[in-house]
Protein 1
Amino acid sequence: MILDTNALSAVADNDLPVVRIFGQATSIALPVIVLGEYRFGIVQSRHRDGYEEWLGRMIRAVRVLPIDEGTSSYYAEIRTELKKIGKPIPSNDLWIAALCRQHRLPILSRDGHFDAVAGLKRVGW
């Protein structure tokens, strides 16, 4: 399962419904884009040190998904599909969706716009 930024934040904050889903997953992956978004939030937090320490442990425990040449093909494919149906999504989420499709993994997210991506399974809470 791939974590979106809102899911990563919820796990960090011990949101029980998300922690339960997280705990039942057979594998967890973090897109490098999610790490960037989360780190941007950490920089602005007054609890920066605690979140940075927690994130370091999380990174060691999960698989971090980089963007590679193959990901760019999935990105272009999904962006074209969404443009045709008139349902664009934010650019960072396009990359995250591309990683989901590339690795054939569902996404844990509150963002309903992922539901417009064909073949992508979103797990919400």
Note: The chain is about 60% helix and 10% strand.
Protein 2
Amino acid sequence: MTTKKGRKITGGKYVQNRKKKANETGRQIRIIKLGKEKRRNKRVKGGRDKSFLLRASMINLLIDGEIKKISIKNVLETPSNKFLARQNILTKGTIVETDLGKAKITNRPSRDGIVNGLLLR
């Protein structure tokens, strides 16, 4: 006996228990580009607001135990995908050019709403 897709062995249908709640659905992918800073707020579960970046021009760099805010000149390379670097998209692991030299982004700007990094020597 062959079983039909989406049915129990007895022939009954599997019925969806319930629909997804708003907080269980996925969100749009946030792409952070190089440019004048632009951010948005989104209401999340619990009524809180989560801020996320759409564009960034500054990076917080850890230099000799101090954190300094420095402007990003250019996106040099993205190890995960070379096409992201061509489009000036900032992701974790991206190597950017700053006034002080090359720096690597160490956080996920799409989640944190801020760009942090380490200076490469």
Note: The chain has one domain: 28-119.
Protein 3
Amino acid sequence: MRKGRRLLSSLALALVLVLSFSLPAFAATTADVTVTAAPSYIAITNDPSTWTINGISGTGKIQPNTTYYAKGSTNETTPPSATVLDAECNFTVTNSSSVNIDLTVTWGAFTGGGADMTNSNAGTNGATTYGAYCWYSGMTYASKVIVKSTGSTAMLTGMTPATTTKKWGVEILTRTDAWTSGTSSTSTLTITATAS
């Protein structure tokens, strides 16, 4: 009887082993993929945020039919060098974007005082209009770009990201007609970044 039990136990163990090895393995039916979306973004700053024409050198008053250059501490009535230098640029723009950018400068009308004038959008002046150009450090001054009230051509293209800076300046040729009063007019000069 004992031999029969041992045989029965061995058969049962063999059957369990066979069953455990003959059952099919179940394959995974799902898998996860982590997808990362890193945004591109445009961000610039510009310093300083004001310019008093002829306020750094000279009387702080402008004259008709005269060109003034935003050149920082240098003489604002003389143009930059043939190749513009850092020291000849009043403004510094910083690209904090994640992408290369193009920079465009626009300039609206002067209003609210005796020096009112509108942008001719041609770089030339007239009885009630001014002309304007912009340039940046390192560029050939003769290649300066006309600044319009809207629709200006890009001054600088492909400025790299990661907090790079570029110094730049602007010039204005004031209207030909004399002023009618001594009160100040103001306008807005805007530098705009777009993805290259």
Note: The chain is about 10% helix and 25% strand.
